[in-house]
Each structure stands twice: as structure tokens, then as C-alpha cells.
């Protein structure tokens, strides 16, 4: 049975001031004006399974909002992390609940905030990955065919062809590579054997449990103690105590960089991770001056600029390559090339005691 796990516990700090602690990126209508990012993700993957089989990993602070956005998902399918401990712990905890429902289920791990343009091609790729994952103890990831030398993504280096499933080539993974500098990214693009790391994974729940036992024994032991408490009156207390002890480690570092039998399927379905404000230029129509405008804007000699309004008229003169975001209580104005640093603004606000702006 296909059992998706959608990871939706992040804060989306690079989309401040629109994204807040009580309204993180996955709850925003950044791409679809009618559906939030998490709703679009559930809508998409539900075409391969039923809502009863979809699990959502989130934080306690977002449970109520998640239920508002996704009333079709059973409340028991919300796996709640007591505190943030990165993706290895997140996936490990969710695997316990999925294992209880279906010990032979195939987990399809997805981020909650990606754009997928060619939905049919995406679902076809996921289905091929499921078929590979069902063979023995395989770990499968979906890599994105790079269109330019991107420095903001990790990369997957692949080598020998493993098989072909429903028209999709499947390759053995040679190595996972951290975000490169510009020169490295250009070499990766020229080599033709590198894919962007999308953060999408497919494996049997029994396989990932074995991998935790083999490569992350301390996490495995903690999961076993949590497993014994699930369904008892001590569940909340034990999960909090054990989860707090877990290392803050990504699934990439904890498992994917160490395990064998890892395979990748190249994906080409119009993907974007919508990681920061400049991503809107890749999904929204630009005007004749190259601007992306949401809201009321009047400008003179303004080009290549992103304007996200909140009802007020925003006027600009002589701007190029700027991001302007207006919300009810904060305004962001930044050089588009430095949009990744918006998360540092949040840290600065916090250090100055301006928690109400976060």
C-alpha cells in the first residue's frame, strides 16, 4: 500500500514577513491563489492513494491549523513532533505509526511546499519509484534534472543504470553532494551525471526501519522505546522524553550518505522548491519590465522587482532587482540577490525582543 508522509513542520523563514510562526510557508497560497501549499501537496498525492493512508508530520503548534487546512486527513494520521529534530527523527517517528497501520507499506516521503507543474508526469515517476522500492530493501529518491548551475540545492551523483520501469530509467546513486559553489555547480551541469536533490524519498517502512537500526543505532533504540509507548497513557510523556534525546540529523546525512542499494529516478515535471521570494519569478507571469506584482503597484523605471502587497498602493521609482513585501505589521525591502538572508532578519528581530513580528 502506498503511504505518503508529507513533512510539514518547518517555519519557512525565508518568506518572512508573510510567513510567520503561526502561519508558516506550507499554509500560504504562494502558487495557487485558492489552495495553500500543503493542500496542493495532498491533492496531488491523493491521486495515488486514499486520504486515510496519507500521514502528515508536523509540530504541536500547527496541529489545529493543519486540521483546518486538511479536514479530510484523519487526526490520527498527524504525527506530531514534540520538538524539531530534523528529518531523520521526523521520518523515524512517522515510520512507527505507519508501521502500525501497515508493516509492509511503502512510504512516499514528500516536502509540503514544492511546486509541481506536470502532475501526471510526477505521479508516474512516483509510481515507478514505488515499484523499485518494493524490490528487496531498496532506498529510492527522485532527483530533478538540472536546468542551470544552481548553488542553492544539494546534488545527487549517479552512475550505472540499474533498470527501467514504465519508461523511467533508474540509476545507482554514487554520492550525495552538499550545496556547491558556482564553479562546482557548473562542473556538475557539464558532467551530465548530477541531479538536484529534491528531498523526495520512497522506501518500504520495513526497509527504513532496518536502515535506522544499521546506520543510526541510537535513533533506532529511541524509536523502539517510543514504539512501546504508542497507544498507551504514557505515549505523550515518553515521546517527548525520547525525542528530546535524538540528534538533530538530516535523513540525507544519517542514512542516504551511508546506506547501500540507493537508487535515483531522474524527474522532469516542472519542479521548484519555492525556497525564497525570488522563486516567485519562476512561477508567476512577469510584466514587460520583468516585475512580478501581487497587489496594487504603480512604478516609474522599476524593473526585475517583486512586489507583494497587502491592500495599500505601493509606489516605486528607479528600482531594479528588489523584493518588496508589505504585510499588516511589517515591510521587507531587500536586494533580490540577498533574499536568502531574510532568515537572518528574523534572527535579528528575535535578538531585539521583537517576537511579535515573527
Automatic annotation (TrEMBL):
GO biological process: GDP-mannose biosynthetic process
Gene3D superfamilies: Spore Coat Polysaccharide Biosynthesis Protein SpsA, Chain A
UniProtKB keywords: GTP-binding, Nucleotide-binding, Nucleotidyltransferase, Transferase
Domain Nucleotidyl transferase residue range list: 4-288
EC class: transferase
Presence of the UniProt keyword Nucleotidyltransferase in the record: yes
Pfam families cross-referenced by the UniProt entry: ManC_GMP_beta-helix, NTP_transferase
Protein name: mannose-1-phosphate guanylyltransferase
Organism: Orenia metallireducens
